[in-house]
Amino acid sequence: MLGLRLHGATDARLDDLPEPEVRPGTVKIRIACAGICGSDLSLYETAPIPVDWPHPLVGETGPHVLGHEFSGYVTEVGDGVDDVPVGALVAVQPSLADGTCPACRRGQTNLCEQSGFLGVNGGGGGFAEYVVVSEHSVFVLPAGFTPELGALIEPLSVALHAVRRSGISAGETALVVGGGPIGLGLLLCLRTHGVARVIVSEVSPSRRELAAALGADAIDPRDVDPVAYAREVTAGQGADASFDAAGVGTATFGPCLEGLRKGGTTVAVAMYHEAVDIDPGTLMLTEKTCTGSFAYTRDDFQSVIDAIADGRIDPMPLVTSRIRLGEVLEQGIDLLRGEGRDTEVKILVTPH
Ligand SMILES: [Zn+2]
């Protein structure tokens, strides 16, 4: 089968690989759809995980197949798997956790001491034709789901977890800096959560247009100061919660913190390109909370599936292109690193 493996920085290759074999407690999935994530671009650019390092929960060295947002059809199940029928359309929660460390025992499996991801640390990935995963990573999707919806559950789970981390309530105002897949996913989750106003600050005109169509106050930070705007629409108070979904550095985190009301919470939900200076004295005076949000738990995944199933969230407007596995480098990763950064949101990949 074909699989896109990361051999080193800016060296990903479509390799001919043996099909993975099902083992007890696992299911074999014919991949139907996989999304390209901003973190795939970072991995591609820097290859931060040594190819010869076996992740302790996976136990295999690289090069590893990329792609951690995916869905597919079950073709075979291993011994002991009773709850996943052959033929079912499934989504895969790619995050790995040992289940035994203190964080896992607290229920914070996303903070596991041995945290890892399928499609990053080995164990197969979405940019391939088949994958074999633990039955516990699989969600059998309800009737009405398509493979494309299945591939969008993962990024929406990132967004939902961040919304939960913010503590924002229905009727309140949110500021989202960055209108990429996570920023727009935050918008969808915040609207579903009953948040009255969501301000999205984004430089790309097409992403701004999409944010506006999805109900945001979409502003261009080069024309409209996000901090001034957030205060203006809240009678001078500032947003109840804010989210940095861009991670540029002070340029994006600064407005998130400044645009908050006293006692509000800002959530870092991006990989940062540079460090940010914070004056703790400001936090003391205002009781603002700065926190982070990392990935998701099984409960976040299930909540997103439920919200899509009953129509509270429709993520399909985030899909801007559909390509084949053979095109994933040029029409996917390279495009998103170049001009596609301004014109694309989510690119979905199908094997054939
Ligand atoms: Zn753990």
What does this structure look like?
This protein has two domains: 2-140 and 315-350, Alpha-Beta Complex (Quinone Oxidoreductase, Chain A, domain 1); 156-292, Rossmann fold, CATH 3.40.50.720. Helix 7 (250-258) links the parallel strand 14 and strand 15 (260-268). The protein has eleven helices and 18 strands. The mean pLDDT is 97. By secondary structure, it is of the alpha/beta class. Strands 3, 5, 6, 9, 10, 17 and 18 form a seven-stranded mixed β-sheet that branches. A six-stranded parallel β-sheet has the order 13-12-11-14-15-16, sandwiched between helices. Strands 2-1-4 form a three-stranded antiparallel β-sheet, covered by helices on one side. It is globular, with a radius of gyration of 20 Å.
Write a brief caption for the model.
This is 2,3-butanediol dehydrogenase. The chain has 352 residues and is α/β, with parallel strands linked by helices. Helix content is 29%, strand content 26%.
Which terms summarize this structure?
6-stranded parallel beta sheet, 7-stranded mixed beta sheet, Rossmann fold, Quinone Oxidoreductase, Chain A, domain 1, alpha/beta, binds zinc ion, 352 residues
